[in-house]
Structure formats: structure tokens, C-alpha cells
Fold this sequence. Notes:
Layout: E1 4-8, H1 14-26, E2 31-35, H2 42-51, E3 59-64, H3 69-77, E4 82-86, H4 95-102, E5 111-112, H5 118-130, H6 134-168
Parallel strand pairs: 1-2, 1-3, 3-4, 4-5
Amino acid sequence: MAQVGIVMGSDSDMAVMAKAADILEELGITYEMTIISAHRQPDKFFEYAKTAEDKGFKVIIAGAGMAAHLPGMCAAIFPMPVIGIPMHTTSLGGRDSLYSIVQMPSGIPVATVAINGGANAGLLAAKILATSDSALLDKLKAYSKKQAETVEAKADKLDKIGYKEYLNSK
């Protein structure tokens, strides 16, 4: 049974949403990914959101661009956390999506990550799940330690060879 639902309004969002899926896979979290347009398939969308709890979802990650109704509508129906990913758009650079997702009415919260912030959405979902899963919490701690070690290795390399050589080595 999947713990996280990943839903997007268009396949053009797939590259960003895949980053969330990659993080979940790395941490051993099960998920289900699908494409549903809240505007073009309202009946299918309502069925998805209404049955998400029965499917075992503990968190939904919803990506959307422009009017960005998908995350908010998920939050209006699904009783557990929803994480919204605003998608970059050509007309307003994703600010339209961002504003739509973060400006939810009182009582309908949507946790929102950066524009195209798929990886952070995956990590936030994992952190939510880790509040009741000590093994997952240990995996998150190891993930953070690995990130810190990567930065330290880069700093050590810079110290040893200088910035010009460092830039040339990339």
C-alpha cells in the first residue's frame, strides 16, 4: 500500500515530480504517481482525493502550474497533509502557481515548497512520515549527514586547489 500519492495536472510536470519520487525511493517510501487534471477531469479528480485515505496515503504531493488548483482541492478533500509544488510557467515564471498554492483560505492548509521544488516536496513528505517511524527518521538523519559530507568534501577540494582550478575541474 502506497504511503504517498504524487499527482500532477500534466505530463509536462513529470520531470519536477520525478524528483519527489526519487527521494521517496531513496528513503524506501512507497508511492503512487498519476496525472489528473482538476479542470478537465473533475469527476476523476474527486474520486482520487476521496479515496486517497482508503488507499493508505498519509501525504499527497500535488504539483500544478498557472491557476494551480490541484493542491488546494486535494487539501479541501483529503484529511491529511498535502504538499504543493508550484510549477514554473512561461507567462509568470511560476509566481502565479506559487501565489495560488500558498494563498489558501483559512482551514485549508497546503504546505508549499519552492517553484519546481520536487526534491524538497519528497523530503518534506518523508519528514512528515518520520514523525511516527523511527527507522525512517534514521534514514533521514543519514541522508542529511551525507549531504553535509558532500559539502565538506567540496570545501576541502576548494581549499586544496583554489577557486580557478576548482571551476576548471567541474
